[in-house]
Amino acid sequence: MAIDKRVGSAAEAVADIGEGAVVMISGFGGAGFANSLVLALRDRKVGGLTLVVNSATHPLSQTHTLIEAGLVRKVICSAARGRGADLSPFELLYKAGKIELTVLPQGTFADSIRAGGAGIPAYYTPAAYGTGLGEGKETRRFNGRDYVLEEAITADVAFVRGDIADRFGNLTFRHAQKNFGPAMATAAKLTIAEVRVAQSEPIAPDRIELPGVFVNRVVTA
Question: Do the beta carbons of residue 44 and residue 21 sit within 8 Å?
Fold first, then answer.
């Protein structure tokens, strides 16, 4: 049977994501958000979600709609503060004790996902040592420098935005779309890619930026 990972719609792509899932969502600075998949997940109304996303409040990401719908119990991110003087809906929920938050330095956020994809359970980094983000975590000194032990991050599903996919799930990205997507794809049990074009013809090997072995489903948006 020929391999074809393309599915007909975002709703079909997310149909088996259940309550309490840990969901990684790519995106940074307005690029790489798989917004069609996020909205389809919102419409499924499955709750108790943990979101692993660089920013919980970015205006060009639809992740805030999951939060505003009351479907999220925890957010792991590197940017939790909204924009402007007013608190975002996420910040209001956090202030009221209705949502959990883990904040990591951005490099640690990326490296923890990368470690999860590589099967490394934890690693040492100097990034948060001596700050509030390092409080309560194990520390150790190497070569005269202090480090904090950080645990890897893995997920049940990753939403990745790409540019072009083929039927095998191989992906290319457009400019900054690439950001966290490739690392997240390796760290999730199920990876769904939202792309501009999903073609039948194989992408030339020298153009593949994320191999299809890490991608389970592809949907055109």
Answer: no
pLDDT in tens, 194-210: 999 999 999 999 999 99
To the nearest whole number, what is the mean pLDDT of the chain? 95
pLDDT given at position 83: 73
What pTM, to 2 d.p., does this model score? Answer: 0.94
CA neighbor of 37 nearest in space, from 145, 141, 199, 184: 184
Token pair recorded at residue 28: 């940074």
Please give the domain boundaries of the chain with CATH numbers for all domains: 19-103+154-220 (3.40.1080.10)
Residue 1 — pLDDT band, cuts 50, 70, 90? low
How is residue 101 written in tokens? 């938050």
What is the DSSP track for the chain?
A: -----B-S-HHHHTTT--TT-EEEE--BTTBS--HHHHHHHHHHT--SEEEEESBSS-TT-THHHHHHTT-EEEEEESB---SSSSPPHHHHHHHTT-SEEEE--HHHHHHHHHHHHHT--EEEESTTTTSGGGTTS-EEEETTEEEEEEE---EEEEEEE-SEEETT--EE--GGGGTTHHHHHHHEEEEEEEESEEESSPPPGGG-SB-GGG--EEEE-
Q: What's the average model confidence in pLDDT over 150-159?
A: 98
Mean pLDDT of 133-158: 97
CB atoms within 10 A of CB 25: 30
